From TrEMBL:
GO molecular function, one term: rRNA binding
Family: Belongs to the universal ribosomal protein uL4 family.
Matches recorded under SUPFAM superfamilies: Ribosomal protein L4 (SSF52166)
Gene3D superfamilies to which the protein is assigned, alphabetical: 3.40.1370.10
Region (Disordered), start-end ranges: 46-77
Gene Ontology cellular-component annotations: ribonucleoprotein complex; ribosome
Domain of life: Bacteria
Entry keyword annotation includes Ribosomal protein: yes
Any GO BP annotation: translation
Functional note: One of the primary rRNA binding proteins, this protein initially binds near the 5'-end of the 23S rRNA. It is important during the early stages of 50S assembly. It makes multiple contacts with different domains of the 23S rRNA in the assembled 50S subunit and ribosome. Forms part of the polypeptide exit tunnel.
InterPro entries in alphabetical order: Ribosomal_uL4, Ribosomal_uL4-like, Ribosomal_uL4_dom_sf
Record-given protein name: Large ribosomal subunit protein uL4
UniProt keyword list: Ribonucleoprotein, Ribosomal protein, RNA-binding, rRNA-binding
Length: 209
């Protein structure tokens, strides 16, 4: 699959980039996508919810009423879950929601997400560029030139670039990612993918093993 390469001015360079069919042209596996996105979102959870149980509360341990004959539920001290202000039974405890997935399944999920974007014609290939100084206005101009400024954009770079990152971090609808670190959730969440030429090579190297 061939796609035109654009420069930062939005002009067609006349060159063509080849999207590897093994990465961008497979039949998407929805279940793999579901599992990978589920794992990503689970890993974002803090898991710090906590409520006090009976043994953790301070208060008198005196039994408030007799065991039987009171006409209500049996209860012991003032910390009893039966009483208002008492402890909670089987309340939430801090936990880790993360779980593991096989590397091959995660790679399949990413290939599936990229294939969906290719089918939707939501991929723009940009020639490699850099920014001498951080400037949000210049980054917005690049998105405008590529006609993707109205969408949620994921810009995929071959390596970390501080100036580009600083230029994009204040834009609500724009995210940056390193080619070897892209994840299924961010790819699907974006309305358009802007991938630099070197990033295509890195994606092929990581996902087409």
């Amino acid at each position: 699959m061939e796609i035109s390469v654009f420069n930062i001015k939005g002009e067609d360079t006349g060159r063509k980039a080849v999207l590897n069919e093994a990465v961008f042209g497979i039949e998407p596996n929805d279940h793999a996508i579901y599992l990978d996105v589920k794992q990503y979102l689970a890993a974002q959870r803090q898991g710090t919810a906590k409520s006090k149980e009976r043994s953790e509360m301070s208060g008198s341990t005196r039994k408030l009423g007799r065991q039987k004959g009171g006409g209500g539920a049996r209860r012991g001290d003032i910390n009893s879950p039966v009483l208002v202000g008492g402890a909670r039974v089987f309340g939430p405890r801090p936990r880790n929601y993360a779980f593991k997935l096989n590397k091959k399944l995660k790679a399949l999920a990413r290939r599936s997400a990229l294939s969906y974007k290719a089918k939707e014609n939501s991929i723009v290939v940009l020639e490699d560029f850099t920014m001498e100084t951080p400037k949000t206005k210049a980054f917005v101009e690049i998105l405008n030139n590529l006609k993707v400024s109205e969408k949620k954009v994921l810009v995929i770079l071959p390596e970390a670039n501080k100036n580009v990152f600083l230029s994009a971090r204040n834009l609500e609808g724009a995210k940056l990612a390193i080619a070897k670190d892209i994840n299924t959730y961010n790819v699907l969440d974006a309305g358009a993918l802007v991938i630099t030429e070197r990033s295509l090579e890195d994606i092929d190297a990581v996902l087409n093993r």
